[in-house]
TrEMBL record:
Keywords: Collagen, Membrane, Transmembrane, Transmembrane helix. It comes from the Bacteria. The chain crosses the membrane at residues 286-306. It comes from Bacillus toyonensis. InterPro entries: Exosporium_BclB, NGRR_dom. Residues 179-189, 199-216 have a biased composition (Low complexity). This is Collagen-like repeat preface domain-containing protein. Residues 159-216 are annotated as: Disordered.
Length: 389
């Protein structure tokens, strides 16, 4: 996929497909009838989601629940693939939440944002049946699908922001201070002991001070590596409160995961967030963080730029809630314009993060849009390393 040269034309499609699209080993075969059913379901979801968040009545809840049940039936009609299987998991989680008479709107908003991120990868994997090198969904239909995805995102409120600062302390009360109570009587002094004081023993001679040993060499510390294994998809949404990133492990990864600005990440089943943290076996200090990102899916960015960010998170021994620690690493250069396959970005930064024994350390990679509040998506390999002394 690449961006057209549209500077001197009034009517050109900003997305076209090249033969490189056939090199994608992952695809979702789909008939034209199934594609039409998908578009109809997405149109219905735009209206139902907007209506439910405007008025979360029981009638609107049942309409939305029925549409997601239809969407699950649609997914079951497709051949299994990583994209289809992940969409099924998210759809089932949304159905379970909507089966409650009073679903938690914050949890629903978070699940929907993950659902939208997964839809973007699903759209790119669609191939019309019969499969051939020219069987990709045409650019006009793909543009329609992404327009519907943007409408879904705009119809869904973002997650609740962090709690504001504590207000100022109120003025001291003006009432009179109560009288001080009387001092209690002093108790009698106990009798002095009658036993004889023992003699003080003689002080022993001080031994000679031994020579100071040589200072040992400073240790180089341990290097802990991270790598995504396969490509990870990173996305930003309007408002930035539900941007999605990926957790990096040692040759594996998990995405999408909501990355709230400055907020915590909690490992758990709803929404599903897998454990990719390591446990520190001793106390120490993280002294540096280095990172690298390589684009695997070409994309055209009409406005602004995308910058890859890597952030360390920490949680105490008995907790599954991780909070950001240290300084985030912003890889350079930032990506803009026509972003080609193989484009890279990297960086390194010094840190001074104290780690206690059994602290858990998690590395999260995400994307930002410096100076612009826009929805973006970028896919690629991510790797990193930290120094622990």
């Amino acid at each position: 996929m690449k961006h057209n040269d549209c500077f001197d034309h009034n009517n050109c499609n900003p997305i076209v497909f090249s033969a490189d699209c056939c090199k994608n080993p992952q695809s979702v075969p789909i008939t034209r009838e199934q594609l039409s059913q998908l578009i109809t379901l997405l149109n219905s979801l735009v209206s139902a989601i907007s209506a439910f968040f405007a008025n979360p009545s029981n009638a609107n809840r049942l309409v939305l629940l029925d549409l997601f049940n239809q969407f699950l039936i649609f997914l079951n009609s497709l051949l299994p693939s990583p994209e289809v299987n992940f969409l099924k998991q998210l759809t089932q989680s949304i159905i379970v939440l909507l089966q409650s008479p009073a679903p938690n709107l914050g949890q629903l908003s978070t699940l929907l944002q993950q659902f939208y991120s997964a839809l973007a990868q699903f759209f790119f994997a669609l191939d019309l049946i019969p499969i051939s090198c020219n069987s990709n969904v045409d650019s006009a239909t793909l543009q329609l699908l992404f327009n519907l995805l943007i409408q879904l995102i705009n119809a869904t409120p973002g997650a609740t922001g962090p709690t504001g600062p504590t207000g100022p302390t109120g003025p001291t009360g003006t009432g009179a201070t109560g009288a001080t109570g009387p001092t209690g009587a002093t108790g009698p002094t106990g009798p002095t002991g009658t036993g004889a004081t023992g003699a003080t023993g003689a002080t022993g001679a001080t031994g000679p001070t031994g020579p100071t040993g040589p200072t040992g060499a400073t240790g180089a510390g341990a290097v802990i590596p991270f790598a995504s294994g396969g490509p990870v998809a990173l996305a930003t949404v309007l408002g930035g409160l539900a941007n999605t990133g990926a957790l990096l492990g040692f040759g594996s990864s998990f995405f999408p995961v909501i990355v709230p600005p400055g907020g915590p990440i909690t490992i758990g089943p709803v929404p599903p967030v897998f454990d990719f943290a390591f446990v520190a076996p001793r106390a120490g200090t993280i002294t540096s963080l280095a990172g690298f990102f390589s684009v695997t899916v070409a994309v055209a960015l009409a406005l602004g730029s995308i910058q890859i960010q890597m952030q360390l998170y920490s949680a105490p021994a008995a907790s599954n809630t991780f909070t950001p620690v240290g300084t985030p690493l912003l890889l350079t250069p930032a990506f803009s314009g026509l972003i080609a396959i193989g484009a890279t970005s990297s960086g390194i930064i010094g840190e001074a993060i104290a780690v206690a024994p059994q602290d858990k350390i998690l590395l999260v990679v995400s994307s930002t849009t410096p100076g612009f509040d826009i929805a973006t998506a970028i896919t690629g390999f991510a790797s990193a390393g930290i120094t622990f002394v």
